[in-house]
Write a sequence for this structure.
C-alpha cells in the first residue's frame, strides 16, 4: 500500500493510522490548555502592572495638586499680611482674621506667632537682632510705659492632615 492511493476503504489498523496521519501543509486549529493558561497568566500580570501604574499616577497627581494648593494659600496669606496695616503690640490673633478665610479643602492657615526684635550689641561693636515672642519691654502692657518697637516678625503656617506644614515669616514695619 505504500505509494498507493487510498480508495476509501480502511481494513487494518496500520492503514487507519496512515490515513489519519497529518498530511504535509496541514496544521491543527486551536490551542492547548497549557497555552491558554500561560496567556491568561501573562494578561493578568500585565493588568496588575497597568492598574498599579494607574493608581500611582492618580495618587501622585493628587499629592502635587494639594502641595500646590498649600503653597498658593501660603503665598496669598503672606501677601495679605504684607498688605495689612501694622498692628501695634500685635499677638498672633492680631493678624489671624486677615488669613482665616483662605483655608479650605483640608488646608488650614494660621498666624502662629508675632515676634519682636531685641537689639543686642556685640563686644566688637556690631548689632544683632534676636527675635523674642515675649519682648523685654512692656510697651504692650496696660501701662504703655514703652513704645512698640515698630518691627514685627509674623509667623504663618499652612497645614494639611496628610502633609508636612509649610511656613513663612513676614516682616512688618510701622510706617
Amino acid at each position: 500500500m505504500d505509494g498507493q492511493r487510498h480508495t476509501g476503504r480502511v481494513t487494518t489498523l496500520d492503514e487507519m493510522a496512515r490515513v489519519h496521519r497529518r498530511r504535509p501543509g496541514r496544521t491543527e486549529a486551536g490551542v492547548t490548555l497549557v497555552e491558554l493558561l500561560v496567556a491568561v497568566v501573562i494578561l493578568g500580570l500585565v493588568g496588575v502592572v497597568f492598574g498599579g501604574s494607574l493608581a500611582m499616577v492618580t495618587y501622585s497627581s493628587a499629592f502635587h495638586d494639594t502641595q500646590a494648593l498649600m503653597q498658593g494659600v501660603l503665598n496669598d496669606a503672606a501677601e495679605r499680611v504684607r498688605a495689612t496695616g501694622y498692628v501695634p503690640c500685635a499677638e498672633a490673633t492680631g493678624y489671624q482674621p486677615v488669613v482665616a478665610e483662605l483655608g479650605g479643602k483640608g488646608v488650614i492657615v494660621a498666624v502662629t506667632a508675632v515676634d519682636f526684635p531685641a537689639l543686642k550689641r556685640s563686644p566688637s561693636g556690631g548689632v544683632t537682632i534676636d527675635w523674642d515672642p515675649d519682648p523685654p519691654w512692656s510697651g504692650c502692657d496696660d501701662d504703655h510705659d514703652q513704645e512698640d518697637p515698630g518691627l514685627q516678625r509674623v509667623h504663618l503656617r499652612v497645614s494639611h492632615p496628610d502633609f508636612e506644614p509649610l511656613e513663612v515669616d513676614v516682616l512688618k514695619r510701622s510706617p
